[in-house]
Amino acid sequence: MKNSSPSENNYQKKVQLLQRVGAVSACLVMLAAFGYFYVTYGKQLYEIFGDSESLKAFLSQFNGFDKWVFVAIRAFQTVIKIIPAEPLEIGSGVLYGTWGGLLLCMLGTMIGSFVIIALTKVFGRSLVSAFIPIEKIESLKFLRDEKKVYFTLFFIYLIPGTPKDVLTYAAGLTKLDMRKFLIVTGIARIPSIISSTWCGQELINKNYTLAIVIFVATALLSVICSLIYKKISSDKDKKDKTGKENGND
Fold it and tell me: Is the whole model's pTM more than 0.90, yes or no?
């Protein structure tokens, strides 16, 4: 086995240092942005991001930079789930149309997902445990199945009502190819987001009946898919538990 030269070791250390500095800097920027919004708007913060009309009025203050502010909000919402996702997505459809809203939501989501992965790579389980119980992470055994993991991830991110937030944090603790992870899960998110941005566009066009149909259909699909996912997960857990008990006999 070939040993790394001192110069290669130094290069790797510099790269790791830059990654850590970048991850910490991104985290600090996002926390500073949230702190600014919270101090400025206080208790109105949740209401602003939870209602499309309030969001529109808020973003209009930024004179040409409103899209970048929206992307930053979406990225922060992806990292720390204190802002509801659905009103943001519908609001983006109201403000920027179906496809424009989709693009901005996807960009913010990808940035937020990258920040999550970078932070978990730097700080590991200690950071993740601050957001997600470690027991929940350890229950996601399919992440260690190299043959099926990306197909399973695509399926989970494709259907509404599944624990996408948990998976993004959990993925950073694995040896998965993060570029492939972001591409696969990013593509899988599109149908769910576009249903919301489409709903938002129909609202602004005053096609209220179609908007209601889209919203109700998406909500029902979310509930059904969530129940199916929980049933599959429960059956799999029982099967694994039975297998362990039989193995111990």
Answer: no
Residue owning tokens 């290069």: 11
Report whether 59 contacts 69 (CB < 8 A): yes
Is 145 in a helix, a strand, or coil? coil
- The tens-digit pLDDT sequence of the chain (249 residues) is 455 566 767 777 776 677 667 666 766 776 676 667 666 665 566 666 666 777 888 888 888 899 998 998 888 888 877 677 878 888 888 889 889 999 999 999 998 888 888 878 777 777 777 667 777 777 777 777 777 888 888 888 887 666 676 788 888 888 888 888 988 888 888 888 888 888 888 877 778 687 777 777 776 766 676 666 666 666 665 665 565 555 555
Output the CA torsion sign for 243, 163, 100, 76: negative
Asked if 120 contacts 169 with a C-beta cutoff of 8 angstroms, the reply is yes
Amino acid, res. 149: V
